[in-house]
Amino acid sequence: MDDYAKRSYGEIPVGFGRKPGIVVVDFQTAFTDPAYPLGGAPLVLRAVENTARLLAVARRYGVPVANCNTAYMSAREMPYWKITAVRETFLHDHPSSAFDPRIHDASYDLTVCKKAPSIFFNTGVADYFTKERVDTVIVTGCNTSGCIRASAVDSFSHRYRTIVPEDCVGDIEEQPHRDNLRDIGRRYVDVSDLATVLAYLEDWHRQNAP
Fold first, then answer.
1. Is the pTM above the cut of 0.90?
2. What is the pLDDT at residue 209?
3. Domain around 153
4. Does residue 117 sit within a domain?
5. Is residue 39 a part of any domain in this protein?
6. For residue range 3-25, what is the model confidence (pLDDT) as tens digits?
7. What amino acid positions are annotated as catalytic residues?
8. Among candidates 171, 154, 28, 30, which has minimal Cα distance to 100?
9. Helices vs strands, H then E, count in the chain
10. Triad 51, 125, 152: Cα angle to 5°
């Protein structure tokens, strides 16, 4: 038992609630296409494929989905990013800002462009989930150590039950991916997996089908 566990971190599970919603964070081609400086990390590509499977079921069952990219009109609009590739390519008119078509359905998803790490920051996603009576947020996307962590913390702060399926999020390196999931799992969220979340959606659909 580590020192965190001795001090009761992670003892109480979050659990699934009565109504799910899914957020998809930054699966834009900047991260999913190896042609771009930040693109093509194996954990991110795995997460895209698994998230696509999750979303196919979620949309079939009418689960609310919020999907975001990150883009700016110019460097002048940006916060003080320390990443050259972000400053040079995360622009509205740059092709790397496009959503990966495997995870985006413009006719179904609430689609937002965020300007900060969290999908909830000044985007209206929380308002949408309130209207939809969501109490359980499933967080997918990239990168685990940055925008996923920020979105998960904001989800927790909005009082949602927050679930992060490990195989539906990704990062550039495995170590920060694991470290950040372990840390938010001690404090704010349940770290789960695709199979468990799909089983929850199936059960939720059975209980709520007309």
1. yes
2. 77
3. 18-205
4. yes
5. yes
6. 999 999 999 999 999 999 999 99
7. 147
8. 28
9. 8, 7
10. 60
